[in-house]
Amino acid sequence: MNRPLFSLLLLCSLFLSGCSVSTISAWIPLDRFIAPRVSPTPTPEPTLPPAVAAQAAALRPDAVDDLESTEAWDHYQIIAALNPSDLSISGTVTLDLRNRTGVALDRLYFHLYPNHPDFGGGLTVTSATVNGQAVASEVQYSDTLLALKLESPLEPDASAQVILGFRAQTPRAASKKTFGAFNFEAGVWSMANFYPILARYFPETGWDTRPIVSRGDFTVSSVALYDVTIDAPQGWTLISSGVTISDTEVNEAIHRQRFVSGPQREFYLAALQGLQAVESVVDGTRIVSYFQPRMAEAGQMSLEVAEQSLRAFNNRYGPYPLAELEVVQSALTQFYGMEYPGVVLIEQSLYTRPGDDFETTIAHEIAHQWWYSQVGNDAQSEAWLDEGLASYAQVIYYEEIGQPDAVEGELQHFRSTFHNARAAGRDAPLDTPASELGGGRYYPLNYAKAPLFFHALRRQIGDAGFTQFLQNYYAAYRYQDVTGADLLQVAEQTCGCELDTLYHDWVETSTKVGIP
């Protein structure tokens, strides 16, 4: 998630306290339904497991081999239908999972995020079976956590199939008071986290059964593969964090669209009406920018910033593996941007004044495609890991496009924000969980102190060493979940030096560090 509107920092701390190539552009009117480009399914390599051959369409050709690791991930299949009249989505989610925890499991836990008050809607599980047998269940924390009680323990390395019937419903025009990514407003029916999501299992502590904190990003989930089929009324354009591999007419009123994903942490879905789009191809990835018709100039600019961001981060971090990236003008209201695998949402008001915040917000959210989507972390416990790197990416973006004054402007923003927070007694260790960062501390720590830590690290190991660290970190932990200790280990291995003091002062304590 990008930095919230400055005038709403206090509200956000309480409420949400997420190679050069030629460019080809084309305008796509979306005033009436136009079927999205259907990505052909490439012929898989002989080593690609047949069960995931369809998923290859979601990846760039040079990343398709990633699917050979399919045994490392669970598989979601969602079949659902949209009902715009009451803003509901109903269907089933089938989860094929393997017990990789090393211990026998007597329960499985799922997050029901839309039941959190901040979402302003709801998610009801209407049925539950495991391996074809109905199972008992219970809910906690105002129905935001679902526990399925297994008839017999699921032994280590054993597999199970969970089928859940569900119905979710979003609010309408509610972004001023609820989470704008789960809402219908300004032509975007945004359905973030609309289905039950398996909770993470932590090796040290077990299932993630913590209550959801209204600060920072909500979702904590592990990598999985998705195959999603949606029935929607004609006249709605569906977009998702996967790619379309088929779009057929069920009847005169309904069309059926099937999406598949690469390895990713969650599946985002939206239905659009009345928006326009412009698209291009950069480094083998199709980029599409969706925007309100009266915002054509800003919509074109959002595409250009996305192009520059993708090139910059491909160069500095390593290649983005997905075949598509979508940027959507949305009514978020209480924050500037939100990231999902392959999709970023940008607050609509920024399009009316496309300046520095517009550009840095898009760059920040696209950087999350590396730091959160590819390299994951516990956003409720160590938000500094992804937010710090995504914020520092604003500096890297301007370096890559040759704007040194803007580089210094970003650094000065981080410095002044952290300096003022520290002077007001709001400093804390970077590894402080979001649940303990009330009193206006979440934003200055994760969006100012955290990027300054990475700048201090860069100064200590040098520009070349820092770039190599980022590339090593990305290569080592793609599709995995990291902790701060993992990051420190990669940094020390990269530089061949000891960084314990730097890490201790910035991350583990609130020592009064020098501001770089």
Explain how this protein is built.
The radius of gyration is 22 Å and the shape is globular. The model is unreliable at 5-36 (pLDDT under 50). Among the domains are: 52-271, Immunoglobulin-like (Sandwich); 376-508, Neutral Protease Domain 2 (Neutral Protease, domain 2). The two termini are 24 Å apart. The strands form six sheets. The protein has an eight-stranded mixed beta sheet, with no helix packed on it. It is α+β, with helices and mostly antiparallel strands. Helix content is 26%, strand content 29%. Helix 3 (356-367) crosses helix 4 (383-400) and helix 4 packs antiparallel against helix 5 (404-423). It contains nine helices and 26 strands.
Summary?
With 516 residues, the protein is of the alpha+beta class.
Which tags fit this structure?
516 residues, 6-stranded mixed beta sheet, alpha+beta, Immunoglobulin-like, Neutral Protease, domain 2
- The rounded distance between the terminal residues' Cα atoms is 24 Å
- Name the structural class: alpha+beta
Strand arrangement, major sheet? 6-5-9-3-2-15-18-17
How much strand content do the residues show? 25-35%
Radius of gyration of CA atoms, rounded to a whole number: 22 Å
CATH C-level category of the domain at 52-271: Mainly Beta
Number of strands: 26
Report the mean per-residue pLDDT as an integer.
Answer: 92
What is the number of helices? 9
Q: Which ranges are low-confidence, i.e. pLDDT below 50, for 5 or more consecutive residues? A: 5-36
CATH architecture of the domain at 52-271: Sandwich
Helix percent reads 25-40%
CATH superfamily of the domain at 52-271: tricorn interacting facor f3 domain
Oligomer: single chain
The name of the CATH topology of the domain at 52-271 is Immunoglobulin-like
Shape: globular
Task: Report the sheet with the most strands, covering strand number, pairing sense and barrel closure.
Answer: 8 strands, mixed
